[in-house]
Amino acid sequence: MTLDPVRDALLTFFDVSGPWLLLYFFLINTSYLVLIILASVNFGRHLRRTQFSGTTSAARSPLTPGVSVLLPAYNEANVILDSVRSVLDLRYPDHEVVVINDGSTDATLERLVETFGLVRSGRDVAGRIEVRGAVRDVWVPADESIPLVVVDKENSGRSDSLNMGINVASRDLVVMVDADSVLDPDALLVVSKPFADDPQNVVATGGVIRAANGCRVVGGRVVDVRMPRSVVARIQVVEYLRSFLLGRAGWSQADALILISGAFGMFRRDILLEAGGLDADSIGEDFELVMRIHKMMKDSKRDYRVVFVAEPVSWTEVPDTLAVLGRQRRRWHRGLWEVLWGYRRMTFNPRYGRIGMVALPYYWFFELFAPLLEVVGVIVVPLGLLLGVVNVPFAVAFLLVAYVYAFFVTCAALLVEEISFHRYARWRDLGAIVLASVAENIGYRQLTALWRLQGWWASLRKKKAVWGTMTRAGFGSS
Amino acid sequence: MVTLSWSVLIGTLVVLVVCCTALLVATVAVRLSRARRARRHDERTAQVKPLVLEVLTAEDEEVAPACEAVAALPDTLWPTAETFVLAAFDSVRGEVRDALVQVLIQRGTLERALAATQSRSAVRRARAAEVIGLVGHVSGRRGLVRLLSDPNIEVRTVAARALGQIGDPHLTSILLDSLRPGSDVPPSVVGTALLGSGETDTAALEAGLAADDEVVRLTAIAVSAELLVLATARAVADRGLTDPSVTVRVQAARALARLGGAWAVPALAAATDPTEASVVRVAATRTLGEMPFPPARAHLALLRDDEDPDVRRLATAATPSRETAGGDR
User: Fold this and answer.
1) Residue A121 lies in a domain
2) Which A-chain residues 237-256 have CB contacts (< 8 A) with chain B?
3) Which of A52-56, A259-263, B25-29 is predicted with the least confidence, judged by mean pLDDT?
4) A445-460 pLDDT per residue, tens
5) Where is the chain membrane-spanning (chain B) (predicted)?
6) Are A19 and B17 a contacting pair at CB < 8 A?
7) Domains of chain B, first to last
8) A200 contacts in chain B (CB < 8 Å)
9) Which of A83, A316, B131, B251 has its CA 20 to 30 A from that of A445?
10) Alpha carbon of B6: minimum distance to chain A alpha carbons (Å)
11) Strands A148-153 and A135-141
């Protein structure tokens, strides 16, 4: 059998797509760079304001808006008490904790009842958002000074539990937190500040999520920030730094933020009720919610803002095994595709301003399609080398340019982090970040691209979406 | 279309490698410089901290000698001592605070801050406003009022907060004016500053309730409620609950929980009308639920079957029927 047709096809492919692929690589990394520049403007302003932010004054003021912290819990018996205590202990003048026990089969509820002296309240929890999981009981502390409500309900998933929490919440602002997240003591003050500064327009804020792996946690607080030991987790620290921290700060600066992480997002409750809460069927429910709010506000021609707060506020354990990471990335990409497809009419629609004309096209081209191109490259380049249609030194130089540009973007992110927050104070951690940003190009990027593509493919085949289990090693809290 | 040559690729690669190296060197330089600054700060702190702590824990006749020791610190150590003293002002009251204010005046802190209100640097002007507020000396009032019109938003915000720390009720109208459109001073800062004075200028608050700007009306209502300015109560009910802004109506309904009497029940009941915005209805129902008056109870009984689950829940919780009353809680 002759390989000439394959060789010819590959040659044509390289001739036609080569310059375009390089252009794509250039554009995607340049867009990261632009976001980092925008983020550094955002950080500069944030840090300048932080000096005079008056956090202590806000912490004492009766005018600071009340916050309901929603903690959905499914089989979280090991961490739930620490979580509730750490949220109750947050510095804030008026906040309540709403735990939604999502049909846990372990001792989550029993531990809460025993520790906080809960009694049945018989409270009516029917709300404006329809929920699926039937409520078994509502519990409140016998000691009324503890601002805690525990809703015990049948298992119906995280989004449905959060919808229940929104119904039950009694404060103007609602913050959604994962039961295993570790919050900084001023997390609520920092993330609610935009609402206090601009009460009429701000509808949602997102805080910075950082990887807690490797950090020392004492009494539900991160007291010593360190790099994780696992290489997989280390690379995610770099990703969080580059994409989640700087990327979102950049989008916020451009007034086009379309994603607030489900692990720490604050919303005006009336807006959540008007939007109908989270979509319990969506696998990218946090993204979907923010998009729905954007659509609702733009359609009704109301002035509004969705703001990202640059201050680190929440720490979460990232996957440190490839199996768990793979499940997470498949789910994220599937969610991305479903939301982008669901809101496709907003894309390139001038009616939706920067959201429609900049943010959504960016997510289509540089988030959704990126893994497809990466995987195509991973298949085609080795094939070309095998068939001798690729000039080896040229291919190596091409690859190096692409990866060194990616490394350059990470270095820029690292410098911004060093100037602004400087959370990884040890020299050894700085070295680990640099090494991880080199290592991510060798295998990690390609693997995550493959997982993301699998997630997309699963959605196109209408395969049933599953959340899977996030195996957590825990923070070793003392 | 783009054509790629070997030299273009290599050239790009070299430029990128140089840029990466420059960024990494910059990162290391920033870190080294921070470490050096921290070390110097720690050394100075070790010399200054015990003296300042001595003042803060001093009693009666120990205060004066302890303050003298702080005031006598050499110029090289004074900036560190000044930072400590100012940071402690939030939690220090009475004789110790007065003595420390004198130390700051003696060492020229207030004078420098007053001069810095004219500085070209916005950060310096904001810092100056903060210092004047912390010291709380009336001589800084004029400078702070001027800074309320500063071109920089940070400076305006800090000046508003600082005026609250000076605590002069005559500043009510000036602070409310600082919420004028385009000023962007957060209403929560102005409101908290007005609360800081402990008492307020009722006429200025009444004028605020009738202001054209929504944010001013909102702040005036919130401050009236927190400071229990009963003279404004009727205006809050009459104007606030019929305000064109939903946010203001919600604030008015909430304020009446503190300001309202039985006379406010009809206005609040009207605010629970099904044609009203849901958030206003919820706020009015909650306030009615906090009122012990029979007309409020009677109206809440009507709301027990309301279509809005939040209104229904609040009404039911406030007027438990025989079947649900008592129980566990």
Assistant:
1) yes
2) none
3) A52-56
4) 999 999 999 999 999 9
5) 6-30
6) no
7) 232-321 (1.25.10.10)
8) 214-215, 247
9) A316
10) 7
11) antiparallel
